[in-house]
Amino acid sequence: MVFEISREAAAGGGGSSSTLRILVATDCHLGYLEKDELRRSDSFDTFEEIFSLAEQHKVDFVLLGGNLFHENKPSRSTLVKTIEILRRRCLGDRPVQFQVVSDQATSLQNLFDRVNHEDPNINVGLPVFTIHGDHDDPTGVDNMSAIDVLASAGFVNYFGKVDLGSSGVDQISLHPILIKKGATSVALYGLGNVRDTRLSKMFQTPGAIKWMNHESPEDMPLLSDWFNIMILHQNRRTASPDNGVTEYLLPHSLDLVIWGHEHESIADPWEVPGLGFHITQPGSTITTSLTSAEATQKHVLLLEIKGMKYRPTKIPLKTVRPFEYAEVVLEEQEDVDPNDEWTVHAHLDKVVDNLIEKNNRKTGSGSEPKLPLVRIKVDYSGFSTINPHRFGQKYVGKVANPQDVIVFSRSAKRRQNTQVNTDGSEQIYPTELDQCTVEALVAESNVKTQILQVNDLHTALHVFVKKDDNMAFHSCLQKNTEDAKASAKGETGSTPSSQNLPASMALSAFEELKCSSDQVDQDTHDNSDELVETSSEDEERRQLPRPVKRTALAMVGGSASSSSSSCSRRKTDLASYRRIPPAKEEEDGRVKKRRSPHVAGRYGAVRRNR
């Protein structure tokens, strides 16, 4: 499948050439450490270099494999810098040499149902196709992400976005983007990040994921003549598919799989035994986790496709901040004394100095080099730890991460649940926390949900914790309620049947839940320590009898307007509230009215003069 394209064809780059050139990059993480004065521009420097390489190699389009942004809600500064680069690099008079011949409305996520370079209102010279990752995935009721902002502005072509909905039936239909350039036909499949456990179950469920094949009219090549590319953004698991996706779950009809999310750069494609397709893993373009996997050279991948053959070329990135990594086992060092902390400091200082010197030799004496990232993983078994922050202070101005130069760990042999101390006592170490899911909790408690779907609750919890979205549960509740109302209305018409009565009761409960906090406040005016307004109008209103609280069951068959009207309450300034103790009863059973120490004034309550 891999072959060498002739140099004449490779140098053509336009006109009637049938060689399709694609520059692939994954995990750009724009906006990473944007509050760090030293490293805030690292992600944008490399992003700029990616488009410089695209112009240098005269590619037809740029393909991004997810996690374009590091944050789910990127800051305005990050959005502005991203749009500036895309506008400067992608807009222009350069002609686009390929055509999109598929139904674009089914594969692209925008309101215009077309790729941006075919929009007559935008002059695009370098198209960009991208999927979303686990950092910038769509959330909320409208299922929107930051990439939707770029797509609606016409800077990128967003595809691979799926909305599993709240129907409880997980099903994904993957529609390819069909691209033609001369005699070369490419079918580009894309799938943005989906929760690993959920997607793994879907891959193992027959019919849950539908690979939509294109129609082949007379003027289109046969299905076997298309070069099929799949790009996805998931955890890659080679052993167990429970917490990720393995390549053995993908269909055999693919020719090349581009794997995002994994930061280790393995750009050279390799063939999967028994499946017939190749996998490439370009890796991230910026170092975000200081591990051994990211200590290697970062790359982007240039794909040159002609017919059913392709040639990959990995291109090293030169603007990535250098990173040096080392591992130290203190027990194996002869010059370290377990009872002398100074010897530990001295040995680690020697290791850090060697790594800095090693980086200086690589950089040479060219332009001003970037300060390197340095990480030492220290196995301190049998030793006591030292203060990492105090240790790193001496390297301020020498490394880019003085606050976390060293990280301590323990070997697997010594990390036991029980360890005997020198005094004979046993020291207990906690085991790993059991990873509990919402599905397991619901199954254990034997709860039957009628409106809220368990998968949606799990997703809302994940978004609330990982994406810091305070409206995650509200969006889940609103979306499921609207879907349940629509389905109930379609099934029952105007008269609800007894079979759907629990669903109607649950819907009424949700309506009641929206204003439950207000009703609780209204129903507890008699309690002590209550906040009430001190105006004379409200004093008279409090003497009137209040209606009895309506429960959710009482609302079955009733109108939603009654519940919404009970939600309204008068809002005044907090300064006009005071705490009133409960009224005391006299001997004859009459309630003694307490004289308020405040009178209503023009600008709030004023205390009486005594």
Count of runs of 4 or more consecutive helical residues:
15
| Category from helices, strands and their pairing | alpha/beta
Strand percentage lies at: 15-25%
How confident overall, as mean pLDDT? 78
Shape: globular
Q: Would you report the number of β strands?
A: 24
Q: Helical residue percent? A: 25-40%
Strand line-up across the major sheet: 3-7-8-10-11-13-12
The low-confidence runs, each spanning 5 or more residues with pLDDT under 50, are: 3-16, 415-435, 494-501, 517-535, 548-577
Main sheet: strands, sense, barrel: 7 strands, mixed
How big is the Rg? 32 Å
Tell me the span between the first and last alpha carbons.
97 Å
Could you give a short description of this structure?
By secondary structure, this protein is of the alpha/beta class. The chain contains 15 helices and 24 strands.
Write the layout of secondary structure elements.
Blueprint: H1 7-12, E1 20-25, H2 42-56, E2 61-65, H3 76-90, E3 99-100, H4 104-107, E4 128-131, H5 146-152, E5 157-158, E6 172-174, E7 177-181, E8 184-191, H6 196-203, E9 209-211, E10 227-233, E11 256-260, E12 266-271, E13 278-281, E14 299-306, E15 309-316, E16 323-329, H7 341-363, E17 373-379, H8 388-392, E18 406-409, E19 418-420, E20 426-428, H9 438-445, H10 454-466, H11 472-492, H12 501-514, H13 516-522, E21 530-533, H14 536-543, H15 560-565, E22 577-580, E23 598-601, E24 604-607
Parallel strand pairs: 1-2, 2-4, 4-5, 6-9, 8-10, 10-11, 11-13, 16-17, 17-18
Antiparallel strand pairs: 1-14, 3-7, 7-8, 12-13, 14-15, 19-20, 21-22, 23-24
Helix pairs in contact: 2-3, 10-11, 11-12
